[in-house]
Amino acid sequence: MGAPFLIVTIFLTLASSLAFASDPSPLQDFCVAVNDPKRTCSLSILSSLHNFFFVNGKFCQDPKLATADDFFFKGLNIAGNTSNKVGSNVTQVNVAQIAGLNTLGISLVRIDYAPYGLNPPHTHPRATEILTVLEGTLYVGFVTSNPDNRLITKVLNKGDVFVFPIGLIHFQFNTGDTNAVVIASLSSQNPGVITIANAVFGSKPPISNDVLAKAFQVDKKGVIELERISKKKMGAQFLVVTVFLALASSLAFASDPSPLQDFCVAIDDPKDALFVNGKFCKNPKLATADDFFFKGLNVAGNTSNKVGSNVTAVNVAQIPGLNTLGVSLVRIDYAPYGLNPPHTHPRATEILTVLEGTLYVGFVTSNPENRLITKVLNKGDVFVFPIGLIHFQFNKGHTNAVAIAGLSSQNPGVITIANAVFGSKPSISDDVLTKAFQVDKNVIDYLQAQFWVNN
Ligand SMILES: *[C@@H]1O[C@H](CO)[C@@H](O)[C@H](O)[C@H]1NC(C)=O
Ligand SMILES: *[C@@H]1O[C@H](CO)[C@@H](O)[C@H](O)[C@H]1NC(C)=O
Ligand SMILES: *[C@@H]1O[C@H](CO)[C@@H](O)[C@H](O)[C@H]1NC(C)=O
Ligand SMILES: *[C@@H]1O[C@H](CO)[C@@H](O)[C@H](O)[C@H]1NC(C)=O
Question: Which residues hold Mn(2+) (predicted)?
């Protein structure tokens, strides 16, 4: 079991040279947000400039001062209070709650729904959302952009997963007479929310009645009525759904597109070309709810293997509608003392929520520091593993543990360190490995002879 840890400090040069499709790259391991510039260390790129400027509205804390708590949040096992007009409550875990999410392009929410509770129509201007139902039954939907404005809906049960593409207006409605709960990941550290009714009829100052009357093709009396209803924060949302789609997805990307796969060798002759990520796009008119849907995430993976853990992935291979949307998720099961061994995701930051059990987790910063940052997580705790860094989770309890984690890529990739180094086909030569690990050939041969679980 010891070998994976041995390797942790060596392969960090693998990490994080890929560009994001959404939030900016930190250009370093991470960039814990601080509000006071006196506590910043300058990125090399920033220090060469005479003026400070914000990355995404935040300064970066000196990485040497970062602690596990900068990547940590607790209490996501606690339900939000749904005693309000819409009967739902969103508990956010983004860069405001976890400063270490700064520049990492991902966050999450817990949403509670009373019986017949509604998360009213809204958009996230900066994020795709991938939602897992933990309890209850939800009727969910989103509306495509102009000119089609097609409503795509689905009834979701426990363990079902659904995707709401970036910028599109969407909602969830609890059709059952019991409470419902979901965890959803969003492909931005700060996805933003535009609740349609509030933004349109509740803005301060208000949008002029002339504009609204024209936009909604109703008379001014109708607009005043809508504003009145919206001040009571009810109902009006559905009416607005088909109209405000022009709000959607107009953000520019500041960086090159991500390859969405390990590499993308350039060629000149299109006859030999593959599409980015090897995927064609389906005609949008033919898309159905099932293109954004996966079921069965309530079912535990089989942990009867050497490491005692099992990762159930829900990415573009399972949900083709995730293509190009920059987010995915996994369920991870851990037997007592099970380990998700040291690995990296070359294309994604991971944000993990513990549903059951107690996990000892950690990640290692890149050269030259290679600092190990660890934390013990309990039910409801949330932890972030920055993009490309080697990390692990270990179930230190004598009961099973379960986690759900969002990843900031449709296809995050996994490099299990032990497998990649000692289990590659063909093998990396002994000369290379003995030198790299400063051990003799017998040790390398022993390690190469092991069967490595492909988790
Ligand atoms: C959501 O729940 C929290 C915690 O119970 C509560 O403080 C907050 O007011 C609730 N928000 C709404 C909109 O009801
Ligand atoms: C939930 O909110 C309602 C209305 O604000 C309040 O009366 C009630 O005590 C709250 N419940 C809990 C458990 O905090
Ligand atoms: C994970 O669990 C699934 C479903 O039980 C099983 O088919 C698969 O072989 C397991 N993977 C590993 C690595 O044990
Ligand atoms: C889990 O995997 C082990 C080993 O492959 C197998 O013996 C066992 O029947 C599996 N358990 C379930 C519940 O499928």
Answer: 343, 345, 350, 391
pLDDT digits over 382-396, tens only?
999 998 888 999 999
Q: How far is the CA of 311 from the centre of ligand 3 (A)?
A: 8
Claim to verify: residue 198 and residue 182 sit in the same structural domain: yes
- Judge if 274 and 131 occupy the same domain: yes
pLDDT surpassing 80 at residue 16: no
| CB of 296 sitting under 6 A from ligand 3 | no
* Number of compact structural domains in the chain: 2
Q: Is 302 in the pocket of ligand 4 (CB under 6 A)?
A: yes
* Cβ of 89 less than 6 Å from ligand 1: yes
Which CATH number is 18's domain given?
Answer: 2.60.120.10
Distance 140 CA to ligand 3 centre (A): 30
Ligand closest to 310 (CA) is 3
Q: How far is CA 430 from CA 9, 67, 102, 452, in A?
A: 19, 37, 40, 18
This prediction's pTM: 0.76
pLDDT tens per residue across span 327-369: 999 999 999 999 998 889 878 899 999 999 999 999 988 777 7
415 with 352, same domain: the answer is yes
Whether 318 and 254 share a structural domain: no
